[in-house]
Amino acid sequence: MSKLNKSLMALALAGLSLVSLNAQAHKPYILASTTEVEPARDGSAWVTFDAAVAENLFTIDFTLKLDGLLITAPDGSKLEPQNVNNGKLRSTFDLNLTKPGTYKVALVNAAVMGSYKDKEGNMKRFRATEETLKKEVPADATDVKVSRQETRVETFVSTGKTDMNVFKPTGAGLEMVPVTNPTELHAGDKVTWRFLVDGKPAANQGVSLFQGGVKFRGTLGEIRQTTNDKGELTLTLPAAGQYMVSTSWPEVKRVEGQPPQMPPRRLSYSAVVEILPE
């Protein structure tokens, strides 16, 4: 296994959502069994989810822990997942959709990482949260370097009807605020998605769309667009299938022959959407 893959696996097993280092890096995802849920005869509506990390969407390479899972109902209330299972290769859970409308399932994580030299001059590395940072770094530490990584992994489902209530931005981190409901997607349609960084338009932001089934297709098939000054992009949807929307901020500048220079704050966003036939 390469050093890159080992480091990615270590992060995943620690329960962190992973930043896409390049188009073919391992990616975390939450995949719904369907994004449009038809109620049963008794009125109940259930959907099940897989959570995993994969290089070739949507195969399974290793599990994605569900720490930081937030499920928002159409009325803004928070729901708890049911029948949660953290397996060796994937995590799974069920959700009971008790009200008509659109639901958002989000896995949100923030980590603080860095290094310092202790009073003997030894280099030490640490991983913390904002709350535990002071405990991790001694007061007499020198050459302190700190980076912050914030990730958001989402998917969306609707039952009975669709609405836009769950897409109100939080104003924190990198978010997608769709103008077009992401559970109403059909091949050939034009859709508009807006991206925000800390509540402000993410202008000139590169956004990728990847279709699942890379293992069987043999090509990545990435669709790449850049947002305008309003943080928006409009695209014509490709063929039906399950897709991932992925973006990160800021763009990492690369110099040939050198490792990428990571900024002090790194944000990433991804969401799984389902495109239905025309």
Q: Which structural class should the secondary elements be placed in? A: mainly beta
Task: Return the domain count.
Answer: 2
Our measurement of the CA-to-CA distance between the termini, rounded to an integer number of angstroms, reads 42 Å
- CATH class categorisation of the largest domain: Mainly Beta
Largest beta-sheet details: 10 strands, mixed
Low-confidence spans: pLDDT under 50, at least 5 residues?
Answer: 1-23
Beta fraction: over 45%
Helices and strands, with pairings:
Elements: H1 3-13, E1 27-32, E2 36-37, E3 46-54, E4 62-63, E5 69-72, E6 78-79, E7 82-86, E8 91-96, E9 101-117, E10 123-128, H2 133-136, E11 142-159, E12 174-178, E13 190-197, E14 200-201, E15 206-211, H3 214-217, E16 223-226, E17 232-236, E18 241-249, E19 265-275
Parallel strand pairs: 2-11, 11-19
Antiparallel strand pairs: 1-3, 3-4, 3-8, 5-6, 5-9, 7-8, 9-10, 9-11, 12-13, 13-14, 13-17, 15-16, 15-18, 18-19
Short description:
It contains three helices and 19 strands. With 278 residues, the chain is mainly beta.
